[in-house]
Amino acid sequence: MKALSLRQLCKTYNNGVQALKGIDLDVEEGDFFALLGPNGAGKSTAIGIVSSLVNKSSGTVTVFGHSIDTDLEAAKSCLGVVPQEINFNQFEKISTILLNQAGFYGIPRPVARERMEYWLNQLQLWEKRETISRSLSGGMKRRLMIARALIHEPQLLILDEPTAGVDIEVRRSMWEFLRRINEQGTTIILTTHYLEEAENLCRHIAIIDEGRIIENDRMSTVLRKLQTETFVLNLRGPLRGTLSLPGYRVTAPDETTLEVEVNKDQNLNEIFGALSAVGGEVVSMRNKANRLEELFMRLVEGRDVGSGQPTAPPTAQADA
Amino acid sequence: MSTAPPSRTPGATPGSHAEVTLAANMRRARRVGFATIVIRESSRIMRIWGQTLVPPVITATLYFIIFGNLIGGRIGQMGGYTYLQYIAPGLIMMSVITNSYGNVVSSFFGAKFGRHIEELLVSPLPNWLIVLGYVAGGMLRGLLVGLIVTIIALFFTHLHVEHLFVVIAAVLLTSVVFALGGFVNAVFAKNFDQITFVPTFILTPMTYLGGVFYSIQMLPEWAQAVSKANPILYMVSAFRYGFLGQSDVDVGFSFAIMTLSVVVLFAACVWLMNKGTGTRE
Prior knowledge:
The structure holds two protein chains of two kinds.
Chain A (H helix, E strand, L loop, with lengths): L1 E11 L5 E11 L3 E5 L6 H8 L7 E6 L2 E2 L4 H6 L1 E4 L11 H11 L4 H14 L15 H13 L5 E5 L7 H16 L3 E5 L3 H7 L2 E6 L2 E7 H6 L3 E8 L13 E6 L2 E7 L4 H10 L4 E6 L3 H10 L20
Parallel strand pairs in A: 3-8, 3-9, 6-7, 7-8
Antiparallel strand pairs in A: 1-2, 1-4, 4-5, 9-10, 11-13, 11-14, 12-13
Chain B lengths: L16 H31 L1 H4 L1 H22 L1 E2 L2 E2 H31 L3 H5 L5 H30 L7 H25 L3 H21 L8 H7 L3 H14 L6 H25 L6
Antiparallel strand pairs in B: 1-2
């Protein structure tokens, strides 16, 4: 069953900005789905429409088979939303926020209390339950919003940049938590600017840019489309001669660092061999950017992802 | 697993047992949702009691001292009652009006401003129920303050009740009308100035000119005609009729206006919510 289905979804704001230009998107039940795009691409608008916070201009939205036009209450009851901005009453206690939210979903108080205890424990907030929410740290506020979105145990959880502004430790614990609830059956749609996060967590990905879906496939399939990767090599000392590496695009930010762009049909052994020939000793090596990040940048900047043809290096030290 | 409002499942054809069960669960979920809004609103009233309950008590006490005891003693009788007995129903009604209105406008606009209105908007509660929840909160504060002002009035004078049912019906309808009015104001308001504009420049003058402190019979004919265009006059008059058995206007007509106002304003509030005015982009 499809957890979410968008068909020809359009949104034009009153100021004339066309945020969505007829997007089609399907998210399967149980999936962990990444919706990526640069700022202003239309991600939050799409999420806003699905969660009834933004009016659509045209198109259809169904959540677990329930249309938001004809069966809105049922569609909403399947959905939990963690928005980008803090949107709870900052003068209320954590427990009050959760119990109220449960009530809005029709959950009787005794059941709501049990669920509150469960989710607050899961998100390490139980000890803070009587704390006024505005005094929580940024990471705690994010976790509170996740607990609030889960209090009615939705089948589909939408997270709009849930880890924005939280430290790496909290981020990683959130990843673990999200993985766990996804394994337990909750379908998750995630938008994030941390592409490492999307690559680690999600099985499917859609990239939205200027109101249109420009990529939509399995994560592994999308990553295979990346024809080149850039490696950063740190050398023990400067090279003793001129590096001869035909067919590779090499730049040298400084005399002990090389950046080498490697196509899919090339290999790293060739690079190490050429470096050895001029006395180069590699002490460490890393990807210049996360693979998804590299692909993302190429897609949204309109560069040709599939060609694999290197462009002229800014610093031509290689003998190409 | 979930006690949330159930979704219509593929087997739930209209009229089937499954459909009936789902409808019953939906009704129960709505009851819980409505009760949650009311509890949240009443908690808010009590949490900020220094802003919600104390000021009207002080204002009413001052009115009773100044207009009732000090000035009222020189005015003499009105319609066979002391001036204090005459204005007491108007002062009670004035506090009901301002507090029913003020509670909804500040609570709903505050929820918009703080964005926690989104908690309700993403929930499966229908818009008419959200409106009813806020109206119930406004009524609660209006009636609570009205009760407190009534008790204060009893320290200053004896309140004779001629028609109890009229008193109750008038105060209930009036609080609903102004709670709905506050909701409309909050929907359109974009900043805090806009939630104080209507109470300061429209509601207060209309209340003062709506026969709280005087009978419109004392006015010249043209002023009486103008006063009759003021809906608050009908509410105050109906309420006063319940206490004193005398009114400046026809009581039946007053109730017709109040009922019509409730229907029109409620429909407007639900329409605005469905349209997303002020709440959805």
